[in-house]
Design brief:
Distance between the termini of chain A: 17 Å
Helix content of chain A: over 70%
Distance between the termini of chain C: 33 Å
Chains: A mainly alpha, B mainly alpha, C mainly alpha
Order of helices and strands of chain C: HHHEEHHHHHHHHHHHHHHHHHH
Strand content of chain A: under 5%
Strand order of the largest sheet of chain C: 1-2
Number of helices of chain C: 21
Strand content of chain C: under 5%
Helix content of chain C: over 70%
Shape of chain A: elongated
Oligomer: heterotrimer
Largest interface: B-C, 30 and 30 residues
Largest sheet of chain C: 2 strands, antiparallel
Radius of gyration of chain A: 18 Å
Shape of chain C: globular
Number of helices of chain A: 5
Chain lengths: 135, 120, 494
């Protein structure tokens, strides 16, 4: 990996921007186009770029397949958990309106956490797909 | 010339048949997956075309706009794309395992190897 | 508990859906197995509660996220899908309870908890297909169940399982894509995805060719999923090379859910008038059913692997269900829905005996069955009873469904077909007999010792076998429910 000095430097510059953009797409999803799926893929793109340039082993030291597995499952659980919380707060499954005093605020919170779950799962699934085919 | 005005549907049919043809005829497992992807892409275009409302703007709430395109088919197809990605990943990982086990990803070779094995 | 009874339709799906990622987190094959057994039995309890609720109060509707029906996703449970939910969750629970030993023997150690995750996802998919009242939701759940079932088949570790799984993936994806195309075309003409809403709006636009195209795409797509002859080619290999308990699970659920979809789309969405008067679907279904029964039974007779033999017999049994549907009468549909339940019991019991045999012998080749009647008396006794039920001997469930099918055929005056049904049972006698003869009348190899399967597999197997006998002797419960399901599909009230 000594020869790709240009690639390594460019990747180092790009990487924080990609991850930051992923976070922007994730958290701005309420107000503009965006959301967990797109953000998750973007975040994974950042990680995969790192893996491509610096090697899969280096990436696995950053984030190990075991951690990814846990993240995958917890993202789904977060999504489903928000839905079940809706039931316990007296609404239907995935009814965000009941999550807060003000239904509008509730909708806001609900979609925020659901999309966070989606984002975590998608990012970790995409990265572990990369591991599966590259490892 | 009404038939030509529906050109995106002609495109859908062309893609669908191309993809389907590859799935059926190609003996290479990876190419089969590619065919499957083309086949699914045609369905994505079908859905996206039907969501377009003539003269409608992008479905983002704005003050001056009264006519919007239908966003629902887009949402549906986003789901279908995700499903497509999952299927492709599953298919490709099977191909990787098949290649490791048989040393080939040509259907003809694999069939010959299966037949030469005695267990039924 | 008042709180939860209103949420039964959604709990039915999210219970396995939440248990699945928990299985990943648990990191222990035993723990994962325990959790999935618990979740599956929980689903079964919910299904029973739902069925009781539906029988007492009529259909139940649940609006996801509080969005009202035609706009939001609606879960709608009536007698038909409550019955299917009961079948799917019941079979899954019993089979999963006896699956641990078989799976530990067949699947690589580090993948076992992933297998249970896939199993639960697959179960969630099947239950979701059955419970939802939204056509696009059907597609999503179809793919959840399909993708996890490809993984389940491939997990058996044999290299042929990989090819079988790959072929299933190609066919299954084509089928599912056909279904999405059909759903899209329906959305084009009706502007809605809700099943009941489409059903209400379709008669106004029934003339359009778009509807006809949608009908064709949906029928072929569902036909692929249910392994309707001649779209069945993925099934024999998939069933043969999957881990034995997984096959027992699929045999009782996968094709049954697809048959349910056919019922739902033909009768609730398109309506019997459109499907059978305008398109004349019985002239497509009836010949395919008859050909399927005959050719698949014939092929089954010549199989050298018992699992594959049973898989071919499954294709023939799908033919009986389709035959009942193509009669478009209450008795015919009763026979079909009844056979959904009965065949699930028969085939799961038979494939569970295969799990017992494979656990001890490591093979399901017919030649290895020699002398097995003495070496595994309980297992082979279970096979014999299951086989008798498959043939349709009185006092078993197989007899009950064939009886109603023949009644329905006579009702239409099609007595040659009822003779055919009886004759086709003779083909079943032949393939069951080949196994029985090998097990009881052929001498075992000299060094063979008795090797009865462990109780953990035998008890669930015998539970299924006894259910075969119980529902064969006292059929009032199942026939009553099937009849109500048939009436609600055809829209006639008793």
């Amino acid at each position: 990996m000594q020869h790709h000095i240009v690639l390594q430097v460019v990747a180092k510059v790009l990487l924080p921007l990609i991850l930051l953009y992923a976070l922007y797409v994730q958290f701005h999803g309420d107000f503009g186009p965006g959301g967990g799926f797109q953000a998750g893929v973007l975040f994974a793109v950042g990680l995969i770029l790192y893996g491509l340039i610096y090697g899969v082993d280096t990436l696995q030291r950053v984030i190990s397949p075991d951690v990814l597995r846990t993240l995958m499952a917890s993202g789904v659980l977060l999504y489903a958990g928000v839905g079940v919380l809706g039931i316990f707060m007296g609404g239907q499954y995935l009814d965000y309106g009941v999550l807060a005093q003000d239904p509008l605020q509730g909708q806001h919170w609900g979609i925020f956490f659901v999309e966070l779950g989606v984002g975590i799962t998608v990012a970790s699934v995409m990265t572990s797909l990369f591991y599966a085919f590259a490892g | 010339m009404e038939a030509l005005g529906l050109y995106n549907y002609w495109l859908v049919i062309a893609l669908m048949m191309t993809g389907f043809y590859i799935v059926i005829t190609s003996p290479n497992l990876v190419k089969k997956i590619i065919g499957l992807n083309i086949f699914q892409a045609s369905v994505f275009i079908l859905y996206i075309s039907m969501g377009k409302v003539a003269g409608g703007s992008a479905p983002i709430l704005a003050d001056q706009v009264t006519l919007y395109s239908n966003p629902l088919p887009h949402v549906l197809i986003l789901t279908a794309i995700v499903v497509g990605v999952a299927t492709t990943a599953m298919g490709l990982s099977l191909v990787v395992r098949i290649y490791a086990a048989y040393g080939s990803m040509e259907e003809d070779d694999i069939e010959v190897m299966d037949r030469s094995e005695t267990d039924g | 508990m008042m709180l939860l009874t209103a949420h039964l339709p959604i709990l039915q799906v999210i219970l396995p859906l939440i248990a699945a990622p928990l299985c990943v987190l648990l990191r222990g094959p035993r723990l994962a197995w325990g959790l999935s057994v618990l979740a599956s039995w929980g689903c079964f309890a919910i299904a029973i509660a739902l069925l009781r609720q539906v029988l007492a109060e009529g259909s139940v509707s649940y609006a996801l996220g509080g969005w009202a029906a035609p706009w939001g996703i609606e879960y709608r449970v009536d007698v038909v899908n409550a019955f299917v939910l009961l079948i799917v969750s019941g079979i899954s629970s019993v089979v999963l309870s006896g699956a641990r030993a078989g799976i530990e023997a067949e699947v690589a150690k580090d993948r076992i908890e992933l297998l249970y995750t896939c199993w639960l996802l697959c179960l969630a998919g099947f239950l979701g297909i059955a419970v939802t009242g939204d056509t696009f939701n059907v597609f999503v759940f179809l793919e959840i169940s399909a993708i996890s079932s490809y993984a389940l088949i491939a997990l058996s570790g044999r290299r042929r399982a990989l090819i079988a799984s790959f072929r299933y993936l190609i066919m299954g994806t084509v089928g599912a894509t056909f279904i999405v195309i059909g759903v899209g075309l329906l959305y084009m003409v009706t502007g809605t995805l809700n099943m009941a809403d489409i059903g209400a709006r379709l008669p106004a636009v029934a003339e359009s060719r778009t509807v006809a195209a949608a009908f064709a795409f949906l029928t072929v797509g569902i036909g692929l999923k249910m392994a309707l002859f001649p779209l069945h080619l993925w099934l024999p290999n998939a069933y043969t090379y999957a881990p034995a308990p997984v096959t027992a699970f699929f045999a009782g659920t996968a094709t049954k859910v697809a048959v349910y979809l056919l019922l739902r789309f033909t009768f609730t969405i398109f309506g019997a008038d459109y499907a059978f008067a305008t398109v004349a679907m019985e002239w497509i279904l009836l010949p395919l059913a008859v050909l399927g029964i005959f050719s698949a039974s014939l092929v089954a007779i010549f199989q050298l692997d018992v699992k594959r033999l049973l898989a071919w017999s499954s294709i023939a049994q799908i033919g009986y269900m389709v035959l009942g549907i193509s009669l478009v009468s209450v008795t015919g549909l009763t026979a079909s829905t009844l056979h959904l339940f009965n065949h699930a019991l028969i085939k799961s019991a038979l494939f569970m005996t295969m799990a017992c045999v494979f656990y001890r012998i490591g093979s399901t080749q017919l030649a290895d069955f020699a002398g097995l009647g003495r070496r595994m008396p309980w297992t082979m006794a279970a096979f014999v009873v299951g086989g008798l039920s498959l043939i349709g001997i009185p006092l078993t469930v197989g007899f009950v469904s064939k009886w109603y099918l023949i009644l329905a055929l006579l009702e239409r005056g099609w007595w040659p077909l009822s003779v055919f049904v009886v004759l086709s049972s003779l083909l079943a006698v032949m393939y069951v007999w080949r196994v029985v003869e090998m097990a009881y009348l052929q001498p075992a190899t000299s060094n063979a010792k008795p090797c009865e399967a462990p109780a953990s597999i035998l008890i669930p197997t015998w539970a299924l076998v006894l259910a075969n006998l119980y529902f064969g002797i006292d059929s009032s419960l199942t026939v009553g429910i099937a009849q109500r399901a048939a009436e609600s599909l055809l829209g006639v009230s008793s």
